[in-house]
Amino acid sequence: MNDPIRVGQLYPAKIPPVASRNQTASAAGKENFQTVLEEKLLKFSGHASKRLEQRGIQFDSEQLRKLGSAIDKAAAKGSKESLVLMQDMALIVNVRNRTVVTAVDGGSMKDNVFTQIDSAVIVS
């Protein structure tokens, strides 16, 4: 009867954090925002960036908007690799990744053959 009374821990030493409903919704919202952003973001591959620099090709915001619209049109038709002809340049675009793979200026387009494309979009 003289046994000591021992009180054990009532709660674990570390309580794992539980995400509240707002935190879960916020994380889901961030994930959805990230997905939408990646779907709309226009990227340039390292090769394309180098070609743009070598050939002195620069884009203004209106040209980038038109390029994005051309990619959207190609995607709507199920294209995977598309040739986009804009003013005096040609761009090969991976439609699924929204990535410009290479760029050619007007002077370099003559006598060129573009291969491994499944569509062409002409932008005015």
Provide a count of the helices.
4
User: What coarse outline follows from CA principal-axis ratios?
Assistant: elongated
H and E string: HEHHEEEHE
> What percent of the residues sit in helical stretches (DSSP H or I)?
40-55%
Number of E-state strands: 5
The biggest beta sheet reads:
5 strands, mixed
Which class do the helix and strand fractions yield?
alpha/beta
Q: Per DSSP, what share of the residues sits in E-state strands of 2 or more residues?
A: 15-25%
Q: State the end-to-end distance.
A: 96 Å
Low-confidence stretches: none
Across the major sheet, the strand order is 1-4-3-2-5
Instruction: Specify Rg, calculated over alpha carbons.
Output: 27 Å
Mean pLDDT: 81
Protein name: Flagellar operon protein
Keywords: Cell projection, Cilium, Flagellum
Pfam families: Flagellar_put
InterPro entries: Flagellar_put (IPR013367)
Summarize the structure.
The protein is α/β, with parallel strands linked by helices and 124 residues long. It has helices spanning 21-40, 46-55, 61-76, 106-109; strands spanning 43-44, 81-86, 89-94, 99-105, 119-123.
Descriptive account of the structure:
Keywords: Cell projection, Cilium, Flagellum. It comes from Saccharibacillus sacchari DSM 19268. The structure is a single chain. The protein has 124 residues and is of the alpha/beta class. It has a domain at 42-123. It is 40% helix and 21% strand. The protein has four helices and five strands. Strands 1-4-3-2-5 form a five-stranded mixed beta sheet.
